[in-house]
Write a structure and sequence with these properties.
Elements: H1 5-9, H2 24-35, H3 43-52, H4 59-71, E1 75-79, E2 86-90, E3 100-105, E4 111-115, H5 117-130, E5 140-143, H6 146-156
Length: 157
């Protein structure tokens, strides 16, 4: 799947109120994303997990449903580690908070919602000292989560 960067630019759009048909497959995909809210799976990972669970859903259906949900602003879309696809996560209420950014693990792909007062301090510093206002709804900091950093550290010893 080729990553559509126009979808990434629309991460901050409010959820569109256009009539959308609620199919069983779409609900199954939504439930999977809700149950795996600490992850940011790819479309293939979602498809494979649903098939393994015995769900009758087509690969194309998964891709189309994710694309629609992303266009409507229901999902956060992140580039995959290999830059050839995307990873998806439901937009949570936390995403609308002022002091909120995302941390993305470059190893396992996990997305962590960071709600911290230091985000406001950092944002204020950038504005005051550098004349740059960040859009926290689109800000993603890449690095390693604690679990992956621990694996790297253990491997180096």
């Amino acid at each position: 799947m080729k990553l559509d960067f126009k979808l990434l630019l629309r991460m901050d759009r409010p959820v569109n109120k256009i009539k959308d048909y609620k199919t069983r497959q779409r609900e199954t995909i939504l439930n999977f994303l809700r149950e795996n809210d600490a992850e940011s799976p790819s479309a293939n990972e979602i498809y494979n997990a649903l098939c393994a669970a015995g769900e009758q859903v087509g690969r194309t259906t998964v891709y189309r449903a994710l694309e629609k949900m992303a266009e409507r602003g229901e999902l956060l879309v992140f580039p995959a580690e290999d830059k050839n696809g995307a990873r998806y996560q439901l937009r949570s209420a936390a995403c609308a908070q002022q002091d909120h950014i995302h941390l993305k693990c470059g190893s396992c792909g996990r997305v962590i919602h960071l709600d911290c007062t230091l985000v406001s301090e950092f944002s204020g510093h950038l504005l005051k000292s550098h004349g740059f206002a960040i859009d926290r709804s689109k800000t993603v900091i890449y690095g390693l989560c604690a679990e992956c950093a621990g694996k790297v550290k253990a491997h180096e010893q």
